């Protein structure tokens, strides 16, 4: 009896050690996957605040919260099942899904550029300031759609870093990454959009230093938000173009990716040391953004510009 109890305890200890080792493996893999996806996380953080721009302060955090909830749903209910099934049974289909995502991001970025040039952006800000509930729903839906593409890129990049792991380890890693990345991105976004309120609170304190910092934050935030809007558009073009270049290569057409690597190496070899790496990255980023802008502009022309001109010509006749 005592021997059986000892054996049972030994089994429990062994299982505990295995479980702990598995958790360590998942944690290490999730950390590795999160680092690998860090570039897209930066883009996601830059893109989101523009969807809150123009709304009154009392609506900012509720909008961010709704987008964050939509992001978690995107990752867990749409992307995770599709990614796991495809990685298990049809891994060759993943590049084509990412190409579609790259086209959508490029289109979104180019459409914002087109609206800015055509003057539609200012009208949009005016409607946002009126806090129309239907417009708010439209902005949240647009943010969640954009998040779907960025989240898909994050999850697929994370999946690629653990593709040799067992099925259940991959699943656990992607779940951890989904919650970790969402908390990181939308936590930072929440801080960014409420920074002016923090500045106002500091400006009302008795400390001269706090008042100076607070007034500086209040003065700077409109410019920071406008800058983030521009950075968000540029990020969509960059990520969209990069997704297209890389995954067109994964699908079998290697010329664009080869040219991108050639340009990066050429700029990287211009100078020695760490600055060469910075120059190489910058050249690759600019080239990817240009590809995203050109491809996105073609889609915008097909969906917006050409139909509008046809309507004008039909009305003129």
Low-confidence stretches: 1-9, 11-25, 29-39, 121-127
Q: Report the average pLDDT across residues.
A: 77
Q: Provide the succession of SSEs.
A: HHHHHHHHHHH
Percent helix, as a range, is over 70%
Structural class: mainly alpha
The major pleated sheet works out as: none
Range of strand content? under 5%
Shape: globular
Can you count the beta strands?
0
Whole-Å distance between the termini?
A: 99 Å
User: What count of helical segments does DSSP give?
Assistant: 11
**Computed Rg:** 24 Å
Say what oligomer this is: single chain
How would you sum up this structure, described in words?
The chain has helices at residues 2-36, 38-47, 57-89, 94-118, 120-129, 133-161, 167-193, 195-203, 208-250, 255-268, 274-316. α3 (57-89) packs parallel to α6. It is mostly helical and 317 residues long. It is globular and about 65 Å long.
What key attributes describe this structure?
mainly alpha; 11 helices; 317 residues; globular
Short description:
The chain has 317 residues and is mostly helical.
Q: Topology, pairings included?
A:
Blueprint: H1 2-36, H2 38-47, H3 57-89, H4 94-118, H5 120-129, H6 133-161, H7 167-193, H8 195-203, H9 208-250, H10 255-268, H11 274-316
Helix pairs in contact: 1-6, 1-7, 2-6, 2-7, 2-9, 3-6, 3-7, 4-6, 4-9, 4-11, 6-7, 8-9, 9-10, 9-11, 10-11
């Amino acid at each position: 009896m005592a021997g059986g109890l000892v054996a049972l305890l030994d089994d429990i200890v062994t299982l505990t050690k295995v479980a702990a080792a598995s958790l360590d493996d998942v944690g290490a893999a999730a950390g590795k996957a999160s680092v690998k996806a860090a570039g897209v996380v930066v883009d996601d953080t830059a893109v989101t605040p523009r969807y809150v721009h123009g709304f009154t302060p009392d609506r900012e955090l509720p909008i961010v919260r709704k987008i964050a909830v939509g992001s978690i749903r995107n990752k867990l209910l749409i992307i995770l099942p599709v990614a796991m099934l495809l990685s298990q049974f049809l891994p060759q289909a993943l590049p084509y899904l990412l190409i579609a995502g790259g086209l959508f991001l490029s289109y979104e970025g180019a459409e914002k550029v087109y609206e800015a040039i055509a003057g539609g952006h200012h009208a949009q800000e005016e409607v946002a300031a009126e806090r129309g509930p239907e417009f708010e729903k439209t902005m949240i839906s647009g943010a969640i759609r954009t998040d779907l593409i960025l989240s898909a890129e994050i999850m697929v990049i994370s999946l690629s870093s653990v593709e040799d792991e067992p099925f259940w380890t991959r699943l656990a890693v992607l779940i951890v990454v989904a919650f970790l990345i969402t908390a990181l991105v939308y936590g930072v976004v929440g801080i960014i959009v409420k920074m002016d309120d923090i500045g106002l609170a500091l400006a009302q304190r008795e400390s001269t230093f706090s008042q100076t910092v607070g007034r500086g934050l209040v003065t700077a935030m409109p410019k920071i938000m406008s800058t983030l809007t521009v950075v968000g558009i540029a990020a969509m073009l960059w990520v969209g173009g990069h997704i297209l270049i890389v995954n067109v290569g994964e699908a079998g057409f290697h010329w664009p990716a080869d040219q991108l690597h050639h340009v990066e190496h050429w700029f990287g070899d211009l100078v020695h040391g760490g600055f060469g790496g910075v120059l190489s990255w910058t050249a690759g980023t600019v080239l990817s953004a240009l590809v995203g802008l050109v491809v996105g502009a073609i889609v915008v022309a097909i969906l917006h510009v050409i139909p509008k001109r046809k309507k004008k010509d039909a009305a003129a006749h």
